[in-house]
DNA sequence: TTATTGTTGTTGCACCACGAAACATGATGT
DNA sequence: ACATCATGTTTCGTGGTGCAACAACAATAA
């Protein structure tokens, strides 16, 4: 299970060096094989260890290609899904269409989200966090309701 | 199983060079033999490994030729279906009627969708994705409902 | 506390494979 | 016989991959 946000620089070839603390777990889980795709709600990428991704892929195959909504999901998720593999130095190459989608240039945030990672450009991440905090401090009703269960 | 989108240039003869990462799987699955037809819902082509296509063809032959809707399906799909075979350089020739249907000229997208590929002209693909994302970010009700099942 | 050594992470560089394009050869049909 | 179309070949440029040197950090001992 992955946690925490790390700032990382892409190298000149668009490769992302996975923080050392995650490398061992990733070799065990999935032999370094992962799948990266876009997040359809937010301007970021999602990075799944292969076994985690396969669960999602299985669900996607069961959708009907005749239903426009389901088809759209398949197009967005599968169409942008890309195999990535950690190289011998623990780096992985993000394909240029994906980099483009998330606006990745140099500085990015790798954010552990339990069974997956999110990849944000640093600017987008800062912006998102600022907005989330603002909503929170203004007292979003739905969020407050959910927090009742949490006793943080 | 095929995933991800790749940009490809048609050569002057209308041949499409299959990305190296798919070539091996295609020689194994179907000895490079595939069938290409039109997508009846979208301005793109569908490319099936021969064994996958045969499954579909079987279903189509079982439809009643008396029912006008089913008859139309047969006409559209079978009528446009075209055998393609990878040449020794991993390229395949797209017939000109099919190129015309999808508006393929030079730049195209080859999109892996598990058991098949979609072939889009680059413009059409970009347009489609932009629209899909827009629909998504405006909060399509039906899609949100489905996403509940996905825990992406 | 500081110096030395070892280990881990990062960056730059060089090689190789793949893809794009132009060209060459062979088949087909008018 | 020539034009046209399909298939094969070669060359060149770009981009992805691995390697190796260097920098940063941690550990140990003087």
From TrEMBL, chains A, B:
Classification via Gene3D superfamilies: Transcriptional regulator MraZ domain (3.40.1550.20)
The keyword RNA-binding is assigned to this record: no
Keyword annotations: Cytoplasm, DNA-binding, Repeat, Transcription, Transcription regulation
Pfam families assigned to the protein according to its UniProt record, in alphabetical order: MraZ
InterPro entries: MraZ, MraZ_C, MraZ_dom, MraZ_N, MraZ_sf, SpoVT-AbrB_dom, SpoVT-AbrB_sf
Secretion signal, residue range per the UniProt entry: none
Domain SpoVT-AbrB: 5-52, 81-124
Coiled-coil region(s): none
Source superkingdom: Bacteria
Keyword Metal-binding recorded: no
Compartmental location: Cytoplasm, Nucleoid
Description of how the protein assembles with itself and partners: Forms oligomers.
Similarity comment: Belongs to the MraZ family.
Name the record gives this protein: Transcriptional regulator MraZ
Organism encoding this protein: Idiomarina baltica OS145
Species classification: Bacteria, Pseudomonadati, Pseudomonadota, Gammaproteobacteria, Alteromonadales
The gene coding this protein: mraZ
